[in-house]
Amino acid sequence: MTDSDCFSKLLCGQQFVEGSEIDDILSHLSTSINHVISEILDLPNTTDEKLSLYGPYLGRSLLELSATALIARLDPFKIILIKGKQETSEYDLGKPHSTAIRWQGDIVDVAVPDLWAEKSLKNPTRALLGAYQIELVLKDSAQKIVDEADEQSLGTWYSELTKTDTKGLFSTLRGKITALFSSFSKGVHHELLIPNQSVLDRDTVYSLINDAFFVVATLGLLLSRVPHAYQKSSIADCDICYKNAKELELG
User: What are 51-80's pLDDT values in tens digits?
Assistant: First the structure.
């Protein structure tokens, strides 16, 4: 299994059952992630001009595909609903849809000062890195990794994810994924009115993409310890895939 295949396995699972709604979705996402990674790994062979144009697109694609796969494994209903809408004759490419994945709301969300307040519970956020998922699901997974794993099993990224306590880890992941999405988007949407290469130079694009590999691989590792996460591989397999994922880094 290549490092790319291992990475997509960590995020999407494997051994998909053909005809299963959620498995078909995860299989599609796995293939798409592998295609994006293949293009990312070819970036060192491209010109600086093309890299500053294409690199941010690939980086944002990696973030969005990976986050969608992780949501599918934690909240399949949301993803099946989106696919159902897209299969209808009413689905129009030319307009936004309320069912679509939104970065703000589905991936990250506003802080929740009191999780158990009635006001909060009327419409609790289900964002991947929202307050409820972290407090009720992912925090325990992070603690299990700290208690049970080590650098030998997870590689050098282990020291990065254990620099602080679990609260600090999620603060780091939220901060990184938010900054990455914003940085990649500036290249995708052509916000820059100065030459792209002046801020999205080769070293910067490499660093951003490497951070994206770390963040989404770490989220995939966290799901390996979530009892109800769909399409889990064995913990040992996930640990190996996490260790191998670092080999994808550019530079």
Answer: 999 999 999 999 999 999 999 999 899 999
Which residues neighbour 99 within 8 Å (Cβ) at sequence distance 6 or greater? 81, 82, 85
Give the Cβ contact number of residue 16 at 10 Å.
17
- Compute the mean pLDDT over every residue in the chain, rounded to the nearest whole number: 93
**What one-character-per-residue DSSP string does 128-169 give?**
TTSHHHIIIIIHHHHHHHHHH--HHHH-THHHHHTSS-HHHH
Non-local (6+) Cβ contacts of 189 within 8 A are none
Angle (nearest 5°) at CA 133 between 28 and 172: 90
DSSP character for 251?
A: -
Q: What is the pLDDT of residues 93-134, one digit of tens each?
A: 888 888 889 999 999 999 999 999 999 999 999 999 999 999
Smallest Cα–Cα separation from 169: which of 244, 234, 222?
Answer: 222
pLDDT attached to residue 177: 97
**C-beta of residue 132 within 8 angstroms of C-beta of residue 113:** no
User: Can you tell me the distance from the alpha carbon of 215 to that of 199, in angstroms, rounded to the nearest whole number?
Assistant: 22
Query: Nearest 5 degrees, angle CA 131-CA 132-CA 136?
Result: 125
